[in-house]
Amino acid sequence: DADVTQTPRNRITKTGKRIMLECSQTKGHDRMYWYRQDPGLGLRLIYYSFDVKDINKGEISDGYSVSRQAQAKFSLSLESAIPNQTALYFCATSVVSGTFQETQYFGPGTRLLVL
Amino acid sequence: AQSVAQPEDQVNVAEGNPLTVKCTYSVSGNPYLFWYVQYPNRGLQFLLKYITGDNLVKGSYGFEAEFNKSQTSFHLKKPSALVSDSALYFCAVRDMWSSNTGKLIFGQGTTLQVKP
Predict the structure, then answer these.
(1) Within a 10 A sphere around the Cβ of B63, how many other Cβ atoms?
(2) For residues B98 and B114, is the Cβ–Cβ distance under 8 A?
(3) With the C-alpha atoms ordered A42, B100, B33, B38, is the resulting torsion angle positive or negative?
(4) Alpha carbons B9 and B21: distance in angstroms, whole number
(5) Are the Cβ atoms of B43 and A108 closer than 8 angstroms?
């Protein structure tokens, strides 16, 4: 979905390096999410944010941190990258309309390789 | 705890034949169910969702899914498969108790291969 962009699209880094993955959206959605995708495991939630002042840990937040710089921007940082953080990372956005009416929309993904 | 199972890693179908991609779920309370598709080198695209109402939900690209509460299933279907439907399909669930958190639980994905 072109309304959700992720940079970079591909990244190779070395163990111990700090890296940042960025997500921007033009949808005007309040809610933003970071997931990682591993083969055979589906997508797992790392962090989520319901507005600029709200940050919440997901199921696999260890080794990651996030920053919600503005409504439209949500960055994911790996403080000290390790090889098992090699994965495909997705950002998603959503807005709640009505009772339980929420659909998440995903960016194109960032493929990260940690050597 | 919420969970989603997609029992088939891969489904192979001939073009023009009907296809089914299976999904079963486990939640406490009413489920909210979603299907997403991931084409090669692309992000996940929303296909359809079930919140309430009719058990048969119609979505994008001619896909539909049938919610079956007694079997706790939400299988994705299409009457006539196209080669261009070949992709990775994810089922996801959210229960009413986590609706305010927005958390989605994803299945492991099923690769659909449609052969000419």
Answers:
(1) 20
(2) no
(3) negative
(4) 10
(5) yes
Chain A CB within 8 Å of residue B101 CB: yes
How many Cβ pairs within 8 Å bridge chains A and B?
A: 61
Q: Closest Cα of chain B to A13: distance in Å?
A: 20
Q: How far apart are CA B111 and CA B59, in angstroms?
A: 19
Q: Which chain A residues are within 8 Å of B34, Cβ to Cβ?
A: 103-104
**Distance (Å, whole) CA A67 – CA B105:** 23
pLDDT tens digits in sequence order for chain A, 115 residues long? 459 999 999 999 999 999 999 999 998 999 999 999 998 888 999 999 998 999 999 989 999 999 999 999 999 999 999 999 999 999 999 877 766 667 889 999 999 999 9
State the Cα–Cα distance between residues B81 and B115, nearest whole angstrom.
9
Please give the angle made by the CA atoms of B81, B88 and B22, to the nearest 5 degrees: 70
